[in-house]
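ok here's Acidic leucine-rich nuclear phosphoprotein 32 family member, seq below lol
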Amino acid sequence: MDMKKRITLELRNRSPAEIVELVLDNSRSADGEVEGLTDEFTELEFLSMVNVGLSSLTKLPPLPKLRKLELSDNNLSGSLETLAEKCPNLTYLNLSGNKIKELSTLEALQNLKSLQSLDLFNCEITSLEDYRESVFELLPQVTYLDGFDQEDNEAPDSEADDEGEAPTGVGAASLCVRLPELRLGSVSVSRRLNVVQAVIGRISSADDQAGAPGQKRKREVEDEGEEDDDEED
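and the structure came out like this:
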């Protein structure tokens, strides 16, 4: 389905000014441009265009209230200056799985003064030496890059608590029930799935590990296999 038809479907006979969230994932854009969106979407706060074939953002309309923008799995390699011009109040931007290679490409995001979270996972830029340090230096307003801050603390919107453990009495099944609430196609989904998998692993060994202090998710893989040292009586 092309993007224009998808927008018409999502409107459901409502006016664009009534729309706060709009998900256009997996629709198709002609010539790699944004289609069907107009400046009538004055109240739009969340926009998701995952895997729609975008290679340019030049036709993105002004969206003054937009705070969260999902653009993962497209073909974007530039034109990010459009975001500062059209979406000045962005706080979250997901550019994972695009063709961003150079640090200089991100300079256009310096004018997004409210940007707090940026995802570039699976972009070529992540292979650069001192990638994380360089991005944080270039964009000092950003607190979380690819889901973690400069001290490797995970973003607080994780489905797990700050210690990476399941709340008392919560089983694996009940945790999995919450997964449909996540936005498909985003990096945060991958992150959160990893969290859930780690939590499930902890639950499975909870009887033998009762009371063991939690560790951050990213450390669990490294520590796996070190928890069998204690012998049972």
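fwiw The two ends are 62 Å apart (CA to CA). kinda neat tbh
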